[in-house]
Design a protein that fits this description.
The protein is mostly helical. It is built from two helices and no strands.
């Protein structure tokens, strides 16, 4: 898999997590621990994307 393809894949997962986080936050019974873990996963994806982007250029 090329770096560009990996960046696209990670970007898609990042956007999906963003959608899931928004849905969780809008639920009547929000689980703050789950939201925190989702945000942590989203941040790790963003860090990996940034790292790959710096290597690609």
């Amino acid at each position: 898999m090329t770096i560009e393809a990996r960046i696209r894949e990670l970007g898609n997962r990042h956007r999906q997590l963003d959608t899931v986080i928004r849905q969780e936050v809008n639920r009547p019974s929000v689980d703050p621990l789950q939201v925190r873990e989702l945000k942590r996963r989203k941040l790790r994806l963003k860090e990996e994307i940034t790292s790959l982007e710096s290597r690609a250029h």
